[in-house]
Amino acid sequence: MLQNKKTFSYIPTFLSSITLNNRVTLQHDNTIHDGLVEKARDGDTNARASLYRLYIKAMFHLCVRITGNKNDAEDVLHDSFIYAFDHLYQITNTAAFGGWLRRIVVSNAIRFCKKGIKWSNLDEDYNQNGPNEEEPWWLDISMEAAHEAIKGLPDGCRQIFVLYVFEDYAHKEIAACLGLSESTSKSQYQRARQLLKERLIKLKEMYG
Hints:
Layout: H1 5-10, H2 13-24, H3 30-41, H4 45-67, H5 70-86, H6 97-116, H7 143-151, H8 157-165, H9 171-178, H10 182-207
Helix pairs in contact: 3-4, 4-5, 4-6, 5-6, 7-10, 8-10, 9-10
């Protein structure tokens, strides 16, 4: 089932649509997968090129959301595809290639970001009650505006937000991946939500 109960109940409706679309993008025909992955595993360069074309757009957007910029995203993506093609022998279920590739990309993006962020400086005491979302403030906000706002979130809270909302990581898992306390992960997630709300409301007021 694509709809994640945690995601849908903790973030505005329009963001759940981004999450849903993002996951649907990776659901390609299993028959196509089986043939391409098997050929790619045997070293067929055309099959590898086809897999690259199938997944490059979705994986690039994922990298940009985590790293926050296109240049770093391209570096992470380059390394991720090289690693994936070098380790295709690990796949026993060829239809699961998309999820397997996604985990590689997320892992590499996290590793990349850990180098440049002083995680120890993140605030653990941000208001964890979160913004009041009784008012449907997200109405009429485009997907493009939402993506741009997410990319513009500060380092630290952006990665946590993306992992929690888009990748379905629990705060305990995020804390373990990033070397944080669970309370820091929760507080930075709330910070990201509040900043996202403020920025999107401001854009809506400026441009209608």
